[in-house]
Amino acid sequence: xxxxxxLLSPLDGWAAPLAEVPDPVFAQAMLGDGVAVDPTGxxxxxxxDGVVISVxxxxxxxxxRAEGGVELLMHVGLDTVTLGGAGFEVHVAxxxxxxxxxxxxxxxxxxxxxxxxxxxxxxxxxxxAGRSIAARTTGAAVKAGDRLLTLSAPxxxxxxxxxxxxxxxxxxxxxxxxxxHARPAARVADVARRFQAEVSLLALxxxxxxxxxxxxxxxxLRHGDSVTLAAAGPDAAAALEALAELIEGGMGEGAPIxxxxxxxxxxSAPAKRAGLARLKGVMASPGLAVGKAVxxxxxxxxxxxxxxGAAQERAALDAAVAAVAGRxxxxxxxGEDQARRAILGAHAAFLDDPELTGHAARLIGExxxxxxxxxxxxxxxxxxxxxxxxxxxxxxxxxxxxxERRVLLVLAGEEDRGPDLPPGAILLAEELLPSQLMGLxxxxxxxxxxxxxxxxxxxxxxxxxxGVPAVVAAGAGVAAINEGTSLILDADAGLLHVAPDxxxxxxxxxxxxxxxxxxxxxxxxxxxxCRMADGTRIKVYANLGSVADAEAAEAAGxxxxxxxxxxxxxxERESAPDEDxxxxxxxxxxxxxxxxxxxxxLLDVGGDKTASYLPIGPEENPALGVRGVRVLxxxxxxxxxxxxxxxxxxxxxKIMVPMVASLSELRAVRAALDEARRExxxxxxxxLGVMIETPAAAAITDLLAAEADFLSVGTNDLTxxxxxxxxxxxxxxxxxxxxxxxxxxMIAQASExxxxxxxxxxxxxxxxxxxxxxxxxxxxGVSELSMPSAAIPEAKxxxxxxxxxxxxxxxxxxxxxxxxxxxxALSNTFLTGEA
Length: 835
Prior knowledge:
It is a single chain. This protein is of the alpha/beta class. It has 28 helices and 34 strands. The strands form 6 sheets. The chain has an 8-stranded antiparallel sheet. Helix 20 (663-679) links the parallel strand 30 and strand 31. Helix 27 runs antiparallel to helix 28 (820-831). The chain starts with a strand and ends with a helix.
């Protein structure tokens, strides 16, 4: 029998379990099992006899092939690829045979300690060649040459010198549309492991062990490539037959695919490249994450219909509702996050709704159980919301489903325990409820991907406030992903990469490291004024909705507030805030901004933002109904009270009018503002600006600019109206992109209209915080960008590298592109310096 394989420590240092490596790719054994060494020495030695497979171009990692085909990866430090080879010296070359203890790489500990994320060095068995790790040294000091890992003899293996019978071969052609990438390679390896025979794939003058997914992928086999299967051993013929049938059958990815109905592919849109299966969804919270799949697919709770007496059932329901209300109150008190508290406040208001509890009580009186009555009452509300025809309002169904589940769990005497998350978990679910997300360990949650859901749901808002990348509406393929599968979540692109190969994982980790490095540098300079490379001033402001937001904006380097949403004062309450309350709150936010410029948007309700004390009649299409300034025109006292409160609490603030579509609306607000000033004995004039968020406003910007004091483009609404696509509709969300040339042309028109009257134009919609859009917006004549606070440092850092002329040239090209995808590609090329 083949002997055990002993691997020696390649370094002096402290041996640690792989799980302690602060990087999910290694800690979760995505590349293979092994150990790690926190080095005290500065030379990486060969842990055994072998052949050098590869030396990374950045000189920080080396792979070896040992006896029997065992393959090893040694990765010096974490994120050391970003050093570009600095501090490293390589002593070997690819293809070179080495002896145990021979020098592979030398490195400068001081350089790595200063510039790398960590010095800890994973030693990974990327291909065990049928062996398993029988023993390992951890939690102890080691010297180079000490025993570190022991790999067992391969099960069922025979000495290589003993004849295993003739090698049988079979030639096939790869029919898979995307070749033998990660998922098919894993399936081939799984089948190969079922046989005693040693099976290999031969192609392009190279040979790969069929039990090694990485080895198979390294052949780079594409659709139409010829490959020879070779097998030797007692069941060689059966192994060849099974593998040939598997590969020639296409594994659901043949070209053309003939078995799609039998095995749905992990793809909800045509978005795949060789070596990488992926799902296409919609970004709900930006960012990039690498981790392993953790599934949260819960079954519906069962309830019995018949009750056990009205008094008993009513008491049970009252107790359950009170218990949930108490938990919500405690959650709200324990957290400072504004979004979290607002959502919990909405849930508390739902629980206290007399119509909801009254409906349930009536059903209990008719002999129904508490659970059945509660579910029926909630269900009636759900159907009512869904019947409104507004997808953003329909997304609030999640909140009702959340409350339904929480109360039913209390009635059943059960706890809603979420999954135990490993570090770097990417949570997969059909839909995620707000309470489920709030109950998770945010420190271990790397990302979220749901099959359903919308980008403006409360879960999306929570994920963004937590800084957790999230993709929603990724389709049924989410449910087909197995627990523990390696994933890359690229929320910025709305993509979930499934079972990525080693190269993709390394690329993602490098990107994460570079982003972290860039963000750190940007934060250091975030408080400096923002000027372009030639000194041109570009103001970078923050979008705010609370005092906490203002404090975060000040810390992030915001130069002012370009959009204070005042709805936070008006929603989720029974009556409108009076003048004193508003004045006090505006004053507190102004104080938190430390005297910096402040632009306050007048109340913008209607559509998906409703207030019970400002009733709006039924509308077939609320997005095109009574919204923004139209509400204020119908309720002049609400407008007057708000104007007086702003003049009292933040007298230096500029005031902005939402949803303007005609010059008469601007004039009406100006008249009300002037009247408020006269009544208060104020002299002078307050700046009054217009939000350009309707196509009508964009078309008449030159007329509006003649009487306005400034212009600010609200790209969120402008995009949905320009493209006739509801931005709250998850079925369309993937197609709604504010970089659409039609939207950019409207922004250009607005900017030109402002220039005619020497007015500055800003952008306060979501596009302002999109780095790909920043140079284009500047090139279109925008001189003020207002964005979420988290985006400010990087936006400032980018702007400092730009020149006005280059931005103008880019903007002209962008206006002539055929699609938003083409605009993004153009901008990305510009930003990477490839243009």
